[in-house]
Design a protein that fits this description.
386 residues; mainly alpha; 2 domains; 17 helices; flat; disordered N terminus
Length: 386
């Protein structure tokens, strides 16, 4: 028997290995079949759901009008009716848009895990690295609680400080929630303005901080932290699992942001219905002090895009200047005080102050620029229905 085994092995055949290989192929085939069944099951529900979504979205405006004036019998042209119609129309519209886009971005993010992002940025030269980091910040999962582990992972694997900060500035400011809300409330032009200016601030701020050579202001223990290597399994995920990730993203993100959406739209509805036309021009207009004041006002406010953008829509509708409001919104989202408190674990106070100063100057510059340029008409189509 021993000789027989040797002969088989010398001929390039091993019975034990052959049995193991057959078993592995059977398992692989079984997994692939399960993935196909799961994909068909998801598509069975998703495709009809998209059709229903499109029909409901098309009838939101007439439904809001009917509910306000026919069901609730509110008198037209009154402040209460205007506020109620605004709330009934905007709330489901924003929630539906968010659900649709968050699902799609959740699938995209299955290709861009934080580990893969870190690997793509490691060793990149500055500026090109800043550009890539800013772009990856849009599609990589991020929240304030993940800022510290992401920072440690990036810095300890060779990602330059400036490139790392470009990512940490871009990720909370230029995300799918902000872009969807801006598109839904103002149209694609305003969303494109926010996307381009937000990326520019993240890229330039990170590059400037990188040029300042402030690595010594990172807490020393950061470089002593062991970091695991990326497992590289992102490409092996089945499409059924990617759809599952998209659905998980909807549950997780919508579960967190819907209270902010409701509160933001409620405040926006109140401003829309009860604040007189043009009153905001005297507070958040084009005065020289309005932009920096809006930036300082936004820093301590604890909100996110879901809560602040509906308020911004109402402010613009009441006469606030686009540049001033844009600076206020960016300050609230990008210069969040809670996030910097969290980052204090890894950054020394001087570096935090530099980050706030550089980003604040960038936001203020954007505010002045859009107040000077004739871009106010861009928002007219977005707020014309208000």
């Amino acid at each position: 028997m021993h000789m027989h085994g040797k002969l088989i092995e010398s001929g390039g055949i091993n019975l034990d290995n052959t049995e193991e290989n057959c078993g592995c192929r059977t398992i692989i085939c079984s997994i692939e079949e399960e993935n196909q069944v799961g994909l068909r099951r998801y598509l069975t529900f998703i495709l009809p759901g998209l059709i229903i979504w499109g029909v409901l979205y098309h009838f939101l405006a007439p439904a809001a009008n009917w509910l306000t004036y026919d069901l609730f019998h509110l008198a037209p042209q009154t402040r209460l009716a205007s506020a109620v119609e605004f709330f009934i129309f905007e709330l489901p519209k924003v929630l539906m848009l968010l659900t649709f886009v968050v699902f799609g971005v959740g699938i995209i993010r299955s290709f861009f895990t934080p580990e893969r992002t870190r690997k793509m940025l490691a060793g990149r030269r500055e500026f090109l690295g800043n550009v890539l980091a800013g772009a990856l910040g849009i599609v990589t999962p991020f929240c304030s609680c993940s800022a510290v582990p992401l920072f440690i992972g990036f810095v300890t694997t060779g990602v330059p400080l400036g490139v790392t900060l470009s990512f940490l500035i871009s990720a909370p400011m230029v995300n799918e929630v902000a872009l969807v809300l801006l598109y839904g409330l103002f149209g694609w032009k305003v969303a494109a303005i926010y996307l381009s200016t937000g990326l520019a601030i993240a890229i330039i701020s990170g590059w400037v901080i990188g040029r300042l050579g402030m690595e010594r202001h990172i807490e020393g223990w950061v470089y002593e932290t062991p970091v695991g290597l990326a497992n590289g399994d992102e490409d092996k995920i089945s499409w059924a699992m990617r759809i599952h990730y998209g659905l998980d993203a909807v549950r997780e993100i919508m579960g967190k942001v819907w209270p902010y959406v409701v509160a933001g739209i409620a405040v926006g509805a109140g401003i829309h219905g009860y604040v007189p036309e043009g009153v905001m021009a005297g507070i958040m207009g084009k005065q020289w002090w309005a932009v920096p004041a809006s930036v300082f006002l936004g820093i301590p406010m604890y909100s996110n895009a879901a809560g602040i953008i509906p308020v911004v829509q109402a402010l613009l509708g009441k006469g606030a200047a686009l540049g001033t409001v844009l600076a206020f919104m960016m300050s609230v989202i990008a210069l969040s005080l809670p996030e910097f408190i969290i980052l204090r674990k890894v950054l020394k106070p001087r570096l935090i102050a530099v980050v706030i100063g550089v980003v604040g100057v960038g936001i203020t510059t954007v505010g002045y620029l859009f107040n000077l340029l004739p871009v106010q008409k861009i928002v007219e189509t977005g707020i014309g229905h208000m």
